């Protein structure tokens, strides 16, 4: 951890000493509008819903007089129009890229398998909350990315560090950090590797863990995942796995503590029927695994694992610059509750600008 921190400090120092002036950058606004009509079924505790997206991305980029390139982005998002996701990156040629990310810059590989005509699995449609693990984009973090072409087989590496494991969305310059009691950890590190060893094949993995928790914490939170995606012609197939061990507090009594962790398997196939129509099918199996629970000094109570299964069917049709979409998600033992069924059907119209 100390080596990673020193690396960031050295790179930022070099960049600061080298920057004497900045050429005027270009600013543009990007985004898109998506109108949806959503129908919920089974045990889903929600009615029919209509909505129109309300997110804008403000982007700027330019070049420093020493040849370094920089990019900046901030997003207006949510019903309250919060400035909630911001990042500033500097690319120093063969030295790679450094950046500061405010509730941005996720390094999780969980959706790297990339199957979904409208969006990847439960990331797009839900309906259930799948526990994949921790991710640096839930906090304010700094990152370093290796440059493209540095390693064989198209391998790239990214490392992110969260100095204060307390979320502070939309933090502006000179913002104070929130007080961290260390109940679940003080800081966090996440590493991601991606590679393209052959044409059409993409693989990758990530690992994240927290540290600095109080002595009463038995397990520091950690998670990891891996994915593979292969595209040939009009077909794409993909698969991914993730594992998550939440932070656990002993409460002062180890014998009264159970252990819970999560494992998720994802796979699917997508086909471009023609230039306008794309369809996909994918499944997720998310397991909540609970170890034997010690309810007394030496009394064990067996706890069964719960397997949540979600099936996704999606279709997207593009015409005249607009995309008409249909996404159906059907979950059994939803939200890791035995016997709970959830189903969502989402009709959408999306236009990019």
Can you describe this structure?
Mean pLDDT is 84; it is low at 14-21. It contains 2 helices and 21 strands. The strands form 3 sheets. Strands 1-3-4-5-6-7-8-9-10-12-13-15-16-19-20-21 form a 16-stranded antiparallel beta barrel. The protein has a two-stranded antiparallel ribbon with strand order 11-14. It has a single domain, classed as Porin. It is globular, with a radius of gyration of 22 Å. It is 6% helix and 52% strand. The chain has 353 residues and is mainly β.
Descriptive keywords:
single chain; 353 residues; mainly beta; Porin; 16-stranded antiparallel barrel; 2 helices; 6% helix; globular
What is the CATH superfamily classification?
Answer: Porin
Mean pLDDT value: 84
Helix count equals 2
By secondary-structure content and strand pairing, the structural class works out as: mainly beta
Low-pLDDT parts are: 14-21
User: Biggest sheet, open or closed, and with what strands and sense?
Assistant: 16 strands, antiparallel, barrel
Fraction of residues in helix: under 10%
| CATH top level class name | Mainly Beta
- CATH topology-level name: Porin
Write down the secondary-structure element order.
HEEEEEEHEEEEEEEEEEEEEEE
């Amino acid at each position: 951890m100390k080596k990673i921190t020193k690396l960031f400090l050295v790179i930022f120092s070099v960049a600061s000493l080298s920057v004497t002036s900045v050429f005027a950058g270009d600013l543009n606004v990007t985004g898109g509008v998506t109108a949806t009509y959503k129908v919920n079924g089974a045990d889903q505790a929600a009615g029919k819903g209509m909505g129109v997206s309300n997110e804008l991305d403000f982007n700027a980029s330019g070049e420093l007089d020493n040849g370094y390139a920089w990019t900046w982005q901030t997003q207006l998002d949510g019903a309250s129009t919060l400035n909630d996701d911001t990042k500033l990156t500097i690319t120093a040629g063969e030295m790679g890229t450094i950046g500061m990310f405010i509730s941005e810059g996720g390094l999780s590989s969980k959706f790297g398998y990339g199957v979904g005509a409208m969006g990847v699995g439960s990331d797009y449609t839900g309906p259930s909350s799948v526990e994949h693990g921790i991710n640096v984009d839930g906090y304010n973090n700094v990152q370093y990315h290796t440059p493209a072409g540095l390693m064989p087989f198209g391998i790239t590496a990214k490392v992110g560090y969260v100095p204060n494991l307390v979320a502070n969305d939309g933090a502006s310059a000179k913002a104070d950090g929130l007080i961290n009691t260390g109940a679940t950890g003080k800081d966090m590190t996440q590493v991601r590797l991606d590679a393209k060893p052959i044409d059409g094949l993409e693989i990758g993995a990530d690992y994240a863990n927290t540290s600095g928790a109080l002595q009463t914490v038995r397990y520091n939170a950690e998670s990891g995942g891996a994915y593979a995606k292969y595209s040939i012609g009009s077909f794409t197939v993909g698969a991914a796995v993730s594992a998550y061990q939440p932070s656990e507090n002993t409460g002062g009594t180890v014998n009264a503590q159970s252990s819970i962790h999560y494992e998720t398997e994802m796979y699917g196939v997508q086909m471009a029927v023609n230039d306008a129509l794309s369809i996909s099918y994918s499944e997720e199996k998310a397991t909540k695994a609970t170890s034997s629970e010690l309810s007394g000094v030496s009394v064990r109570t067996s706890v069964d694992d719960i397997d949540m299964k979600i099936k996704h069917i999606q279709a997207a049709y593009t015409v005249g610059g607009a995309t008409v979409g249909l996404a159906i998600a059907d979950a059994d033992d939803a939200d890791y509750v035995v016997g709970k069924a959830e189903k969502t059907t989402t009709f959408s119209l999306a236009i990019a600008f």
